[in-house]
Amino acid sequence: MNRVSIGVTLSLSLFLLGAPLWADMNKTAPALKSPAGSKAEQHITEGVEHYTQGHWDVAKKHFQEAVKADPASAEAHYDLALSLDKSGDHKTAIEHFKKALELGKDNPAIQQSEILHAHLKKH
Q1: Which of 70, 88, 108, 123 has the most other CB atoms within 10 Å of its CB?
Q2: Hey, what's the torsion of the CAs at 17, 18, 22, 27, to 10 degrees?
């Protein structure tokens, strides 16, 4: 079986299982660290630690606290969106990806994020 056949088989399998093909694109999308001095810094730091360990729900709680602490933090919204995506809440993830894109105009990691743009293309 060549690579194309494997890819088609895998894509078809995911489709048949009802999993959106873009749902897990962020396997390689790391959570972003907070700028130094941000009110959200502690929550983001703890969230990133849990996110990298695959503790999506725990990370999500920290990122939610980060957004509460600093609603203007693009990184907090972005990281929350990543954890929401991993938890299967794509609708809310899209809202936070949009907010991250709006707030993070000077952050190339956000502006060029494949997972963010994949979610926004779907809606």
Answers
A1: 70
A2: -50
* Total Cβ atoms within 10 A of residue 113: 24
Domain ranges of the chain: 32-122
List, for residues 35-92, the tens digit of each pLDDT value. Answer: 888 899 999 999 999 999 999 999 999 999 999 999 999 999 999 999 999 999 999 9
What's the pTM value of the predicted model, to 2 decimals? 0.77
Cβ(110)–Cβ(116) under 8 Å? yes
- CATH fold for the domain made of 32-122: 1.25.40
| Neighbouring C-alpha atoms within 13 Å toward the C-beta of 117 | 7
